[in-house]
Design a protein that fits this description.
single chain
Length: 101
């Protein structure tokens, strides 16, 4: 059986994944007319915009989790885990974005 902290982390990860997929869909729609061979700079601007948007959403969600669960005995560890999960979701988003043709 999972602990309360593990359940929170799993829920955050699932929510983060949904956010990432939603932002990625928006990103794909925004760049559909961008020719990377001719406009790589424009493509990179869009990538940074949507990466920033995702980061902001994830950090906001993490702050909500932290503020509503301040009573956790391992709040510092919990915070570090959330920061790491955010980093991983941002890396995955960037990886997916770079391989759009």
């Amino acid at each position: 059986m999972l602990s309360h902290t593990e359940n929170l982390l799993n829920t955050f990860d699932e929510t983060a994944h949904l956010f990432a997929n939603s932002i990625y869909t928006e990103f794909i729609f925004s760049i559909k007319d961008v020719d990377r061979l001719k406009n790589e700079n424009t493509f990179q601007l869009w990538t940074r915009k949507y990466t920033g948007k995702l980061k902001q959403l994830l950090e906001g969600q993490a702050m909500e989790y932290i503020s509503t669960n301040r009573d956790l005995a391992t709040i510092d560890w919990f915070h570090k885990k959330l920061v790491n999960m955010i980093r991983l979701h941002l890396q995955e988003f960037s990886y997916r974005a770079q391989y759009v043709s």
